Amino acid sequence: MTRPIVAIDGPAGAGKSTVAKGVAERLGYLYIDTGAMYRAVAYKALQAGIASDQQAVVALAMRTEVTLANIDGEQHVFADGEDVTQAIRSQEATRASSPVSAIPGVRKRLVELQRNMAAAGGVVMEGRDIGTVVFPNAEVKVFLTASAEERARRRVEQMREMGIEADPVKIAAEMRERDLRDSSRAAAPLTQAPDAVLLDTDGMSIEQVIEAIMAIHDKGIGSRE
After folding, report:
1. Which one of 39, 88, 138, 155 has the fewest CB atoms closer than 10 angstroms to its CB?
2. pTM given for the model
């Protein structure tokens, strides 16, 4: 039996990356951060000065090789061989990633890469359209969410750990704006798959969220045996 695909979707700042890493470690699965892949394309577009030109961004995405590698227990993101793991977390790349990810041609290219990465199963993949578009037949689906205020608090803490100061009120406003943009875009909008389990993480620790998803995984896989 092929090992299952665990699809974790949700809005920006919901803690998908941290939780997905933890779940993948517990299961011994491959962790795939699809958001980082879109950030990599956005970063390359910014570097080339073409982020506002959709046609040029699509052409860039088509010729850019985005790969992921586990180095010393941490996932690194490479764009054409360049390690862009830290660069794609800048505020500029973060802001650019949402409009870039809404471009149909970019999504088509990266969805193809994501499906190739997960073809053998045994992966935990997180993003915004994994359970609805990338892998609608994923065996385990979770829609991870939290209030904009809670997500902003987490993002500010994350940025401070990187030595970056940020205003939580401004970050929360940006979260709401991105939620609206991501959920209303024409190409693969952010939405909960009908068969996904909704998990509101307000007031939950990372370990509690991981435990909750492990329970969902075990229940989902058990029902298919």
Report:
1. 155
2. 0.82
